[in-house]
Amino acid sequence: MGHYGPRHYLHRMAWTPQPFRIRINPLNPVSMSYRDQIDRNRIPRHVAIIMDGNGRWAKQQGKERCFGHQAGAETVHVIAEEAARLGIGYLTLYTFSTENWNRPAEEITALMTLLFDSIEEETFMKNNISFRVIGDIAKLPEKVQQRLNQCIERTAANSGMCLVLALSYSSRWELTEATRQIAEKVSQGQLKPEEIDDKLIERHLTTSFMPDPDLLIRTGGELRLSNYLLWQAAYAELYFCDTFWPDFREEELCRAICDYQRRERRFGKTSEQIV
Known about the structure:
CATH architecture of one domain: 3-Layer(aba) Sandwich
Shape: globular
Strand order of the largest sheet: 3-4-2-1-5-6
Number of helices: 10
Largest sheet: 6 strands, parallel
Structural class: alpha/beta
Strand content: 5-15%
CATH topology of one domain: Undecaprenyl pyrophosphate synthetase
Distance between the termini: 32 Å
CATH class of one domain: Alpha Beta
Radius of gyration: 20 Å
């Protein structure tokens, strides 16, 4: 991908985001922005995000929850664009969990409508972006499935950043499906139990096409993973912030990456072994 990322992953909503304001140290008025502090040679290849706080953000504004989801859709555009500029290879967004089906019917309908209206295929093609979806897609409305599959097929040959939406997804669902597939192969004599290892399990996960996340971000102040990429995040660096997703701007993403780059990733080894 070129220097500039896609301009419109999602239709722009009526809400206009406020710019992120950097806190300046009065004793050091020329403090560098987080973007300027990033080491471009150590950008995480895969960033996963739990986009939390839309409903609470809307409540603070005295609005309905759906207003928060619309504002959150705008943030997807902003963050996807910044991720592409930074050279992130995969951006996976927790868009709708299997547990979210338990929400009020009117909210689910509004979310599905927003999802359908938000996919802009021309933008992916123009910016060489591939598009993928992970999750129990069969549960989505038929017209949404068709729209998603069409976009996936038409962007399959694109070689730029891969934007992945986790829809009707949860790790327990994913691991259950993988186990079922493996058990079926064993029962049919296609696989021996002793041949089952972590690599084989990984090949049966819906995320088998991409690397594990290096950095997993959760907005909204909650300190949990909420059934998201539990297998894949075994060695991911976790970053939690209080900012609600609609207010999460480019500088917040850069701050998370700076924090990631300050950490020592040992993968079970000692510090001396990774020098």
